Amino acid sequence: MAFQHGVRVSEQPTSLIAPVLGTAGLQVVFGTAPVNLAEDPYNVTNTPVIAYSWSEAVKKLGYSADYAKYTLCQSMYASFQLIGVAPVVFVNVLDPKKHKKKIDPATVQVEDMEALVPVTGLLLDTVKISVPAGDGGGDPTALANGADYLLSFDDDGQVLITLTTAGAGAAATTITVEGTAIDPDAVDENDVIGVSATGGEKGFEVLRQVYPKLGMTPGLILAPGWSHIPDVGIVMAAKTEEINGYFRCEGFIDIDSTATGCTAYDKVKVAKESAGCTNKHIMALWPCIAVGSSWFWYSAIMGALTTYIDANNDDVPNLSPSNKLIGVTGTVLADGETEVVLDQLQGNAVNSFGVTTAINVNGWRTWGNRSACYPANTDPKDMWFCCRRFFSWWANSFILTYFQKVDDPANVRLIETIVDTENIRGGAYVSAGKCARAEITFNMDENPVTNLIDGKLTFHQYLTPYPPAEDIHNILEFDPYALESALGAAAT
């Protein structure tokens, strides 16, 4: 190092990039998390947990790169690390009191007063440690947490035991460890759906709690690793409507690309129809996405990307998430190994079934604009996913804005207030290019006296979000007269 004399300053890159904030596409993600690694393992089950950053999500839910077992971690990584968007609401359905298994006593070596238990999923409060007989004494010696040892997790989620110098096991070369671990394999689709013999809100039923608890309406719901199961996908699609009785949202469902599911693009139509995936509030996705050595269910990536697009568009969900670069390395089947490479023609075929895929055109990008209701439903407000989202978002906004006016006198002032406010708001969005029309009226022919005396007011609003420019066609024609004109000019 060179000799220094004076005052110096150096900088290093920021370790975390602040995520973009957006709530129009607020993700509500259902699945499993390694809650044994969480700050409070027993109070993050079947309750909405909101996180605004990677560190907050890891603190509240734990994190594991074993995405097949811990499906919430797919959306956690996609949102906070790959895309960079927040907040995200997670609903963990893995119950450490129910989905657990006993770990057989294991003898581990102690080096420098530390021992590593080669088991993941251990719940720290269940760990029991003793010094075996014949190692520094006669009968086995039970050790006390805090006094004789300290527990922590390493980066792989394994328990690290540190013996204290003044503890009873300070001289031990081996120790015996036993305890209870969470068991993600014990979670099934009924836990995600919310079917329970004991009652209480679980799984998808917890969606109802998001607005009362967090004050935000769900924008997108997804369950990567689960939604490809038809029973789960059908129930999830049904939950997009009448949330809390009035709100609505959209969601993403993966078409099964496991070995027993759809493994070729020309089978996507049959797979989609077999799964009953035809809801107008759903975008169906196929296949899965590879990011380096890891793979994700497509819904985890698309959920994060769609929220990011909204957040960078004034939090207005009028843009299509199609044809956007996603910074991934490929598409694969659900085994994570079998590569899927579609060209644009094959991608278009998948789109024609009402399913979104991904293609590589100077980088991997999303490909598809249609809701799952297409081609059976061709109403533009329903078949275009971005238009469907705009309608749902506007409806939720209307409810939240004018809830305060409920039970006010149904007089001219109230009607004018709603009409004027909505038209000013709509005009702003039209001027900003978010939609072609957003106009509200109060028509007497839609408000008969019988309704007025019953306290019912009906407004009529016209919304016209722009559909995506899905097909841009340029007609090229040879002009022989231009050739004649050019050659004629040269001859003179």
What does this structure look like?
This protein is of the alpha/beta class. It is built from 13 helices and 23 strands. The longest helix has 20 residues, at 412-431. It is globular and about 105 Å long. The model has no long low-confidence stretch (mean pLDDT 93).
What is the gist of this entry?
With 492 residues, the chain is an alpha/beta fold. The protein has helices spanning 54-61, 72-83, 189-193, 210-214, 230-238, 268-274, 298-311, 344-352, 380-383, 385-402, 412-431, 449-452, 480-491; strands at 20-21, 27-31, 48-51, 85-86, 88-92, 100-109, 114-120, 128-131, 141-142, 149-153, 158-163, 174-182, 220-222, 250-254, 282-285, 288-291, 294-296, 330-332, 339-340, 355-360, 364-367, 435-441, 460-465.
What characteristics describe this protein?
13 helices; 26% helix; four-stranded antiparallel beta sheet; alpha/beta; eight-stranded mixed beta sheet; 492 residues
Give the helix/strand layout:
Layout: E1 20-21, E2 27-31, E3 48-51, H1 54-61, H2 72-83, E4 85-86, E5 88-92, E6 100-109, E7 114-120, E8 128-131, E9 141-142, E10 149-153, E11 158-163, E12 174-182, H3 189-193, H4 210-214, E13 220-222, H5 230-238, E14 250-254, H6 268-274, E15 282-285, E16 288-291, E17 294-296, H7 298-311, E18 330-332, E19 339-340, H8 344-352, E20 355-360, E21 364-367, H9 380-383, H10 385-402, H11 412-431, E22 435-441, H12 449-452, E23 460-465, H13 480-491
Parallel strand pairs: 1-4, 2-5, 2-13, 13-14, 14-15, 15-20
Antiparallel strand pairs: 3-5, 6-12, 7-11, 8-9, 8-12, 10-11, 16-17, 16-18, 18-19, 20-21, 22-23
Helix pairs in contact: 2-7
